[in-house]
Amino acid sequence: MKTIDKIYINGEFTTPQGKQYFDLISPTTNEKLGQVLLGNEQDTKNAIAAAKEAFKSFSKTTITERIQYLKNIQASIEKRREDFIDVMVEEYGGTLQFSTTSFDYMLKSFDSAINLLNFYSFTKTMGESEVQMTPIGVVGIIIPWNSSNGFIASKLSTAIAAGCTAVIKPSEMSAQQTQLITECLHEAGLPKGVFNIVNGLGEIVGAEISRNPDIAKISFTGSTNVGKIIAKEAVETMKRVTLELGGKSPNIILDDADFSKAIPLAIIAAYMNNGQACIAGTRLLVPENRLEEVKKLITEIIPNTIVGNPKNKTTAVGPLVSVKQYERVQNYIQIGIDEGAEILTGGLGKPEGLEKGNFAKPTVFINVNNQMRIAREEIFGPVLSVITYKTEEEAIEIANDTTYGLQAYISSSNEKRAHKVASQINAGRVQINGIGHDPMAPFGGFKQSGIGREFGTIGLEAYLEPKALIR
Ligand code: NAP
Ligand code: MG
Question: Annotated catalytic, 184?
Fold first, then answer.
């Protein structure tokens, strides 16, 4: 059993003043893996003070120096590859497949930040004036458990590229993953105070970050509800906010698509990261007159979508992160049944032989209409709703009839047509005939999926304040 009893402030592992312990529970077995000592409000204030002090000199570092720091971090993370993958599998329940991909993306986020620094010009001419893009200040980074170290890497690498310092509050459920990345960051030898990491509760550590006048900007990923709480608090001190919130992403299968490819892809899009993905394609929109074909394909594919121990190479869907998350998903499956949707596959309860962990059955609902709660609310588990449409126009209308707008998916054999449909979808990213990630393109949501964008130039500029020198 592991005890994590240090947080990281001003270049040192230090014992928090907080006295509360939080149990770390295996999602696969529900056995106790360890415990973490949580930081409190004072710990958070200390971390912010260290970041504020460090900002004075870090904001003046050269591009060459920042590139070197990013390279150092990347090198120390790369050395611990197996540890990163193992701890994500063990503590979070990420499948081996997903945790490996996740690690590769995490490493690449440093390349992207370096790449940006190689071409971005921090001084521009606009009108008659010189415009300096200046680092915004101390950044508060608040993140959830579904890709903890991935979020730390992408947000912190952008902050460093911009010349900002940071205070990071991960989910306490990710404490072992956090410990590992903190060790790597420590080894990279950045000036003290550039990054500080405080384990602790959202209502305590997160709330202090949202309130504290020395935080200039918050980069948050998590639920829409908490995003709203943070944004309301942040406005008191005019903090800038980047909010990556939930989604209910539509996946439109056009009638000319190759269904034998599009439907397996739809299952992957729905169940990626055990269904705990903000970008999951959870509303599958199919032509009404092709429903029987879709049902047949889904029924054939699902048995190959192996649910089980995330350590196994062939596992496609692992456990949900916690008992609470499992219960949330069960509740939604019940809601779907009560609303009159029909279960094509899956349903309530745990798959046979997996009773100990937080395993849900990969579930597909048919006879779903877009007004049902299972079609409108983010479930965050392996639950897919199939919705039928009659015309392309109706498909677009249903896709856009949502409070969210993070991502969408389109399958078609006609590239022009897919492009035309994609252009009418209100979402931050639209994936055509595949699932990919472009780290130089913006990522973020329309409507209640968030505010602002991450990645690429737009993502970097969210950490910068423009200053015009008028002469
Ligand atoms: P959450 O409550 O939004 O948590 C995200 C982060 O915000 C965590 O670090 C959390 O700390 C912190 N937080 C909570 N309350 C806060 C407050 N008042 N002020 C500042 N920070 C605060 O998400 P969750 O409870 O982990 O998951 C619940 C649901 O959110 C999921 O079922 C899913 O629908 C959605 N979700 C979305 C994403 C996404 O990627 N868009 C990710 C995760 C979850 P604590 O961990 O201490 O609460
Ligand atoms: Mg929470």
Answer: no
